[in-house]
């Protein structure tokens, strides 16, 4: 009896939501950034719905937008991921805990140690989202005037990964004998001193922590650039990506799986999970209405700037409540971007204001519909190899999360597209990933 | 009615104990380094006993002793402090959570952020133990061949403190207005951009986190060197120190309080808490017997090396089961150290083996006796201004902790020397420390 292929679902979280207008949505928790009680509720519901992981997005700077937009933003301040996920590990048993950590602005010894500690605390549920930190404002918080150049960041990231995984392998799984009689706490023959000396990093080791429960915490990678795809193929076990549509997703899926094979790895051991905003309604119209309402909470002044960028034209000159003009001035902006805006305006009959608020709110891939229509779409993405599952973002919290966990997930379960219960206790088990062998010990 | 002065008590923890033989003591939990369940039990008991704080000691390297000693050590591997304390914050409500973080091998933006996050998660219970990381092996895990020189470490530490506290003050306490109607999430006039440019550090800010619940997490400092004492006088709110006896403690107490006053601070706002091993018995003899038994679990080969250092002579030549020879060869070792060993041997009638195991186990200040005799001693230290309380280390766990919380603490409470219950919810309230004003906002 062949088993139906199943989706993997992770929740990509900012405490208030990633949508820039979400904190003003009726029933939202604007104070969730520093209110642990709300986060406990969210993760408990996600675990009850059998999500693979709770994934904490992160930034390393506040000043990444003009002050007029900044003052309206709920996403630039919140709990730090390691401390938050460690706290949340105690109120959950099964759901994975993915933290973002930068290879550009941190030390591999610290990063290896914190993930190993989180993995031990949580009984094998940690994942490391490797980021090279694209935001140039971050550099200024870490002693630099200029951001580290893209190629250099990826080169260091690759070496950083080697060092961190090498540090996780510092001790054999059976190194800690703790033999009261002989007084030997661990076998020094089962301890490896890394002695790494590379172009960017020099780290002796060993790590001052036993090998993680999962061997290595799960490796997540989000880059879509050429070096990002290559890094994913060589190292990632989960890819968090942002294709615009199924065609783009299939191209990315094929490319990253091919790079994985080329790197000598099993393509089953890398899960491609496109980011998707999910808005669930009892009817398609209701879902669309929720999204339109949500977008109205995006401030027009900041929204119009986003639209202007996408159009390559000053959209503040247009009538906000009229349709998008068809006679846009010639510019050297990307034609495909401009065509995309025009298509969206036509498809959904949006005014300039609504278009702007869409681009200022959340412009990425979205599934907006009933549990049945969304399940249909997801099944197609899974069957056509555009995705192994999705990195879910919620339009607003808590209601948008409840809509997914209480309405969409049961529909996916009925169709056999999502697990009815966890089959194991570690994140690797949820994702069907093998436990890595220790490179220094059998 | 004048109130009796009370002791402050913090628990200085390694998961298995700081005593090097403790993991072999009957009933111990040798696996506690990576077993959260044990740590949850410990902190729950400490909170029930109304301890001020749970204080997680830390290291940044494994290779800090010869391999023959290393393989017997349970103290070089364990949970990382931030992840552990964040997890423990969820199972407690009142007890403070003190983490060690290095100013030499970390970035102020990360350190400020993690402590602020822990303070928010825990409702105002975080404390930062500022260390400059004395262990030269740590340097090798962070890209350096040589350890950073002592004076340079303290210079950077002082600047690091200024940056971290400045980052904590990034937002006024009332900056986050979250006004749904106007769409303003925070008032940018209540955000301060630090723009720090100093000799060792350059950090723009602001921190991407609201001001901590306590304003600043409590500042703990452990140095006893000249620059360490000065740093404490200028910055510390709790001093963790290691005087050998009451006379030494009084000198240190006077000196640090004087430096505090000289720095323009209120001497009531710095609490001097000497480290003390506490061994409780129903009789003094029973307590001494527990300690002697504990010392027998220290391996002789490693113990004798510690004794040789203290004597400035090769103690492995002596009869292990005889008394300390009186005709020690002349050396240029410290006379006071040698006299201290001879006095200990005479006072307690210890053999060479027992002496060695004492020095290899835990050679610092210890209170060994009944609840009544220990309370007597503590009362004297408090009255004579040798201490404002103690940084308690347990000889073995869990029994040594139970002895303190179930036997000593009730005795101290009966005498009015220790609180019967917490008077507030934040660590600052437990310690009687004011909430710092924001240097940039009223």
Automatic annotation (TrEMBL), chains A, B:
Single GO MF descriptor: monooxygenase activity
Q: Which Pfam families match?
A: Bac_luciferase
Q: What is this protein called?
A: Alkanesulfonate monooxygenase
| Keywords assigned | Flavoprotein, FMN, Monooxygenase, Oxidoreductase
| Luciferase-like domain span | 26-387
The protein's matches in InterPro entries, at most eight in alphabetical order, are given as: Diverse_substr_monoxygenases, Luciferase-like_dom, Luciferase-like_sf, NTA_MOA
Q: Which family does it belong to?
A: Belongs to the NtaA/SnaA/DszA monooxygenase family.
């Amino acid at each position: 009896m062949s088993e139906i292929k199943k989706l993997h679902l992770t929740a990509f979280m900012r405490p208030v939501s990633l949508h820039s207008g979400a904190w003003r949505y009726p029933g939202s928790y604007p104070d969730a950034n520093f209110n642990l009680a709300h986060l406990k509720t969210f993760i408990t519901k996600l675990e009850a719905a059998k999500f693979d992981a709770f994934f904490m997005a992160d930034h390393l700077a506040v000043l990444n937008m003009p002050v007029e937009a900044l003052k309206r933003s709920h996403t630039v301040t919140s709990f730090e991921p390691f401390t938050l996920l460690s706290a949340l590990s105690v109120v959950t048993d099964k759901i994975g805990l993915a933290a973002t950590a930068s290879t550009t602005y941190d030390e591999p010894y610290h990063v290896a140690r914190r993930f190993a500690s989180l993995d031990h605390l949580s009984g094998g549920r940690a994942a490391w989202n490797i980021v090279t930190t694209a935001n140039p404002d971050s550099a200024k918080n870490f002693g630099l005037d200029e951001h580290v150049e893209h190629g250099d960041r990826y080169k260091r990231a690759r070496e950083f990964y080697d060092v961190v995984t090498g540090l996780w392998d510092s001790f054999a799984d059976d190194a800690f004998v703790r033999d009261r009689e002989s007084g030997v706490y661990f076998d020094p023959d089962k301890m490896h001193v890394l002695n790494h000396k590379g172009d960017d990093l020099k780290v002796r080791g060993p790590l001052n922590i036993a090998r993680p429960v999962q061997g290595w915490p799960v490796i997540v990678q989000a880059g879509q650039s050429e070096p990002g795809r290559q890094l994913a193929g060589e190292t990632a076990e989960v890819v968090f990506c942002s294709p615009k549509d199924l065609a783009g997703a299939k191209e990315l899926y094929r490319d990253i799986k091919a790079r994985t094979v080329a790197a000598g790895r099993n393509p089953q051991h890398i899960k491609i999970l496109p980011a998707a905003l999910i808005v669930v309604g009892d009817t398609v119209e209701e879902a669309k209405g929720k999204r339109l309402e949500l977008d109205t909470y995006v401030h027009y002044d900041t929204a119009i700037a986003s639209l202007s960028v996408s159009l390559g034209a000053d959209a503040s000159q247009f009538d906000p409540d009229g349709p998008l003009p068809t006679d846009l001035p010639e510019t050297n902006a990307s034609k495909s971007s401009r065509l995309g805006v025009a298509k969206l305006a036509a498809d959904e009959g949006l005014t300039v204001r609504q278009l702007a608020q869409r681009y200022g709110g959340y412009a990425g891939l979205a599934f907006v519909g009933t549990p049945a229509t969304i399940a249909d779409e997801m099944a197609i993405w899974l069957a056509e190899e555009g995705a192994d599952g999705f990195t879910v973002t919620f339009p607003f919290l808590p209601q948008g999360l409840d809509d997914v966990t209480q309405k969409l997930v049961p529909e996916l379960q009925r169709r056999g597209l999502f697990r009815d219960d966890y089959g194991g206790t570690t994140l690797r088990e949820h994702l069907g990933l093998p436990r890595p062998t220790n490179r220094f010990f059998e």
